[in-house]
Every structure is written in structure tokens, then in C-alpha cells.
Specification:
homodimer; alpha/beta; two-stranded parallel ribbon; 10 helices; 15% strand
């Protein structure tokens, strides 16, 4: 089967008027969710797959974006499409921008109905469970009673876990890639440095920078530079950049001397040019808060015992943000809860970023798993 | 032997009028070095030990500082003193603040003779070899022809290596703790994020913030928060802080929620209150530049073959800033160069910070080694 592109995809917007009570107690009176769909829902409604995005992702999972010029491929276009591991010739695939995002769904840039101005930092902080509730309403809207699979990497994998626990009857398969059952102190520490960089940027203006016609680009840039260090492995950084100098010799100044500096600063500047600082804060907080075992006094197995889905858990050997050990915590809890689980630890030098990259072993594991999902759905 | 305190120690200042040509080509016409000494130089001048400090260290290695109220113990007071592993009853121990520092030696806060104003960011960037040359002149001044040992942890260990290569006849023992033969791309990346935090702080004013009556406290605070993450191990952070909350439940805001956030912010604020931002930049650059093997096309053994010292190399199992593997690179190169080397890999949960902490195995290794150094010196 030859993998093909979905071509140009047009995002859609679903408007919801029913208030959503968030984990924090705050109530969102109404909200929009921007989403894309690929493929066709079958008559039984049994072939729907939800793709959940990670920290900086969005609804544009696959195909070419109609909005951008030049048109950009979706963030998981190597995984989702006709003839690809998540095959849109067989599945009806849904990607959405989560609440609090900055790609069209209701978030800090949206107007706060109480003030008529952008929410800014007044947009309520959300938890993964809030996204899952909002996604469930989108599923209702789309006529999806049960997902054949809920799939995600990193923060997206946490949404897949949460779905399996919160709506056990609505998920037949949960695919959890490069994730963790909760963030460690070190994970939270990195997130807090990133947040402090944004919060203390004088251009942040308490989160109401839109009104000032500026963005906290310095803070966002630092946050992204730091993020990139944790997405890559030490080894792949050494291989790609090592101690390679930009010039012939040391310059004894603060401009770029080593190639790794050039790479990080470029990534930081690019990100600061398009991503919303308040959304970055919201996403990192959702990561920090995720800890479903807390509902059972820390017993992850007890919480996962509520699930009825089959699980596929995948980790990458060089991922030190969410190491294989963190995935094995999930697998061990599933086994203790007597839940069906397949686990693949992919040998990869690409660190946390590996979940987005094309790797034959990884893609073969996904393809084989989704063959079975398709057979169940048929 | 009971370990005792040195009591109050008064620092001294050595003034040098002979110009020092730095690795960058810049020339420092004159400079001061602030130093402390403990113990007495013997008649043969054979019992002198130089202690080299790391990124944020200084001359106050041991004893109680006369300047501070309340008096503070030196940064290596658990290692250096009467009856301690580096025994000041037997050795004449010297600690100094390196050039570019912010504790009294000539650095960015000193007056630039050409302008009559503080150097600020115009203070030339220094390399480890520059410090070693300056330290050699201090040794001359103190009547020390040959060091019984040059000792340091982290960036201090790099100075000990550099001494053994640059002044082989003046070092009988080089003690290299928690160091590396060069920084990896990941190490440089962390340093560059810290530097960018400082350089882009609006209060940095291109390094001339002294004139503006401000300090780039935001940037320095972020740099230190990030530094602390890399000094601690994932495990010790998990053990000390884990996911412990400051309050009873999540607060859904940006004030401290998790104890780890409180710890890091406190450490960052404290550091920003006393450390100089320009010195921080200088120290991280010296780390990035260190790579003695570069002089021999990357062949570390060829460079270390110039040394005549005996080596003691020590690493700590949970140190991920300079992991045991990085110390083994040094050991392997020394073995290839047929240099005498003892190596100890200390089992410790305390990450990079372990080199400053009291650990029985670590201190016993040091004590035993310095017993032999003392015997040689007698």
C-alpha cells in the first residue's frame, strides 16, 4: 500500500453553548473547538479515531493546511493519511485544538464575554480531564459514540489515558506514546523555569500583553530553547551539533559561537513569533497537574482498573523527558489492573521528539496495532 | 583525628602589574587576585595545595568569613581544615577568586583603567588557561614553586587538568572531581539558555547595568533556577520534593503550587541578590571553551601525555551534568598516555552537587589520597 497525502484540509469550528465546569471550579459558559477530520465515518460509527495533541500542537494533524502559504503539512502527517499507519482510507480521524489553545479554539486570545476584551491570563487554567470532557462533546456532535482509538504522544498520551479512565465505555483502544503517569519534580522544575521566563518578561503585562501591542517574546523564546533541550537526547545533540563552531575559531563574545547555540536561538525565535505565551503557561500547567492516580491515593492500577480499553504503550530509549521507565510504570499498573496492554520500547537516538519522527520499527508497531483496530471496527 | 574549624579567616589581595595576555588576545594590564591561605608553607615549600573554584565559587574555601554577619563557612569547609581530608595541619592551602569573578578579584565590577568606569561587559572573556596563568603568578608571589596538589570540582577540576598540562613541572598531583574533558552540546545548550536569560533581560543594559543602578535579576534568577535542575539528580529531586504541594490542593494559578517550585524560586532569588551577571556570563563561557584536546586535533591522551602529575579522578553515579562516563574519558586518556591515575566512582544520589557534600566514601577516598600526598611532601 502506497502512502499518499490527504491534500489540502480545511479546519471546521464547532460552537458549544452548554457551560463546561472545569476541574478548577471555573465555568466556561460557551466555547469553540476548531477541528479537522480525515476519512469517512462508517455507518456503524465504529471507525473513529481521536488524535490528541501535545504542548505546542493543534488540530492540523495531517494533510496540507489551507491557511498557510506555503501550505504546511500536519504535525503527524507521517503517521496519519491514506496508506499510513493510521490509515484514513479505513478510519475517520479527528484532530482538534484543545481549550486554552492558540490555534482557533477558545483560549486566552478569545474575547472574555464578561469584559469584551481578550481573556489573556484570566482564561481559566485547565486540566487534562477538562479537555477530555470537551472532546467528548465534540464526539457527540460528530456522531461518534465510541472511539475505535484515542491516540496521543506526550501530553496527548495523557489525554488518551484520561479518556480510558473517565469514559471507559467510549474508548476501545488507548494508544499512549512517550508519556508518563505524572510529572516528576524535575519535569515540573523545567516547566516552572519556562513559566517564570514568561511571567517575569516585562512584556507579559500580567498576561494582558495583547492590549499593549506586544508579546513576551524574550520569555517565550527562553521557554522554547529550554524545551528543545529536553526534547532531544544528549546523544543526538552530540551527533548533530557536538562542539561544532560557527566560525573557524572561538570569538570570545556572546554572538553564536557553537552551532548548537544557533539552532536553539533559531527555534526559540521562530516559536516566539507564532505561539501564544498564555497558552504555553496553560499547557505546562495541564502537564504538571496530570496525576490520575491521585484520585486513588496514588494507586495508578486502581484508577486504570476503571478502563475497559485495550492499551498500546510506546516509549523511546533515549527519551529522558518521559523515559521508558515512566511508560513501564503505566504498563505495570495496567498489568496489575489486569487490563490488556501491548508495550513497545523503540530503540531511537532522537529523544522525546522521536514520537513525531519517521522510524520504521515505531511505524510498523503502530501499523500492526491499527490493522487490528481496523479489523475490530469492520 | 578530630576535625576542627579554622576559625575566622581574613582574605588577602595580591596586586599584579605585569600585563597578562589572555587566550582571546586581549591584554589585562594589571589585576588583583583575592585569596585566602590556611596552614603553613613548610621550609621546603613542598606542602602547598591550590583549590580551584567552580562556576559560582570564590576564595573563601574554608573557615569562617570575617566579612559576613553571621559569619559563613567556606564552600568546601567539610573537606579543608584541621583534621579534615585536606588537612591544614599538614598542608598550606590556597584558595583564590578567579579573574572575572565578583568576590574581590579583578572582574566586571572593577574599574576599567581606560574609562574610569566599571568594566561591565567589556571585561574580556577568559579561558581556563588564563586563570591557570594568573594562579601561577600568585604561586610565585607566595613562594610556591611546585604544588603538592591542584584540586577542584566541576570547573575547578578543569583548572586542575589544565595546570597538569600547562605547567607539568609545577604540579605533583592533580585532583579532578565531577569534571569533564569538554562540554557536550547539551551542556553548552543549558549554558546558552542561562546566558540568553541574562543578555535579554532589559535590566542588563548591554552589561553596563551598574551605571543604571539596577541588576538583571530576572535573568540571573532564571539562570540559577536552571542551573539547580542540572546540579541535582532526578532521583534526589523526587525524594526531596516529589509532587508535594505547598497547600492542600491545586490552586490553578501561577504562585507556588509544588514545593519544587518554591525551592527553585528561592534559590534563584537568593543568587540574583549577590552574584554578578557579567561574572556568570564569563564563567559559563570559560566552561564552554574548555577543550584541551583541541590542541592535539581532539586527542586528549596526546595532550595529557605532557603532564607529569599523578591523577585522582572522582565522579558521582547520579551526576548527569558531568556523568561518570565523562570522568572515564579522562581516565581512559590518562591510561592511554601512561599517566598514573586513581579513579573512584562514588555511589551518590546527590547529582553534580555531591562534590560539595559530606559523603563518607568520597571523603575517605580523598583522605587516603592526601595521606599519600602528605607523605610525599614530608
Amino acid at each position: 500500500m502506497t502512502a499518499r497525502s490527504l491534500g489540502v484540509v480545511t479546519p471546521q469550528t464547532a460552537h458549544f453553548d452548554e457551560p463546561l465546569t472545569l476541574r478548577s471550579g471555573a465555568i466556561l459558559e460557551r466555547y469553540d473547538l476548531v477541528y479537522e477530520t480525515y476519512g469517512t465515518l462508517n455507518a456503524e460509527g465504529s471507525n473513529a479515531i481521536l488524535i490528541c495533541h501535545a504542548l505546542s500542537g493543534n488540530h492540523h494533524v495531517a494533510g496540507l493546511s489551507v491557511a498557510d502559504d506555503p501550505k504546511t503539512a500536519g504535525w503527524w502527517d507521517n503517521m496519519v493519511g491514506p496508506g499510513k499507519p493510521i490509515d484514513t482510507d479505513r478510519f475517520f480521524v479527528v484532530g482538534l485544538n484543545n481549550l486554552g489553545g492558540c490555534h482557533g479554539s477558545t483560549g486566552p486570545q478569545s474575547l472574555n464575554p464578561k469584559t469584551g476584551k481578550p481573556w489573556g491570563a484570566d482564561f481559566p487554567l485547565v486540566a487534562v480531564i477538562d479537555w477530555v470532557h470537551a472532546q467528548a462533546r465534540l464526539a457527540d456532535r460528530l456522531g461518534v459514540k465510541v472511539w475505535a482509538a484515542v491516540v496521543g504522544g506526550s501530553l496527548g498520551g495523557m489525554q488518551a489515558m484520561r479518556w480510558s479512565i473517565t469514559y471507559p465505555k467510549r474508548v476501545r483502544n488507548a494508544v499512549v506514546v512517550a508519556a508518563a503517569p505524572y510529572l516528576t519534580a524535575q519535569n515540573i522544575a523545567f516547566n516552572d523555569v519556562a513559566r517564570q521566563a514568561i511571567l517575569t518578561d516585562p512584556d507579559f503585562h500580567g498576561g494582558h500583553f495583547y492590549e499593549h501591542g506586544v508579546v513576551p517574546a524574550r520569555g517565550l523564546r527562553l521557554a522554547r530553547m529550554l524545551g528543545h533541550i529536553t526534547y532531544l537526547s544528549d546523544d543526538v545533540m552530540a551527533e548533530k551539533f557536538g562542539r561544532m563552531l560557527r566560525g573557524d575559531d572561538l570569538k570570545f563574545g556572546f554572538d553564536v559561537e557553537f552551532e548548537i547555540e544557533s539552532y536553539l536561538r533559531y527555534q526559540g525565535d521562530k516559536f516566539a513569533g507564532y505561539f501564544d505565551a498564555n497558552t504555553y503557561l496553560i499547557m505546562t500547567k495541564a502537564l504538571d497537574y496530570f496525576d490520575p492516580a491521585r484520585e486513588a491515593g496514588g494507586d495508578l492500577a486502581a484508577v486504570l482498573a476503571r478502563a475497559t480499553a485495550r492499551f498500546l504503550v510506546i516509549s523511546f530509549t533515549s527519551d529522558w523527558r518521559f523515559s521508558p521507565g515512566r511508560s513501564r510504570e503505566i504498563v505495570d499498573a495496567l498489568l496489575a489492573a489486569r487490563r490488556p496492554v501491548a508495550y513497545a520500547e523503540i530503540d531511537s537516538p532522537n529523544g522525546h521528539d522521536a514520537f513525531l519522527m519517521t522510524d520504521a520499527h515505531y511505524h510498523n508497531v503502530m501499523r500492526a496495532y491499527f490493522e487490528r483496530v481496523a479489523a475490530e471496527a469492520a
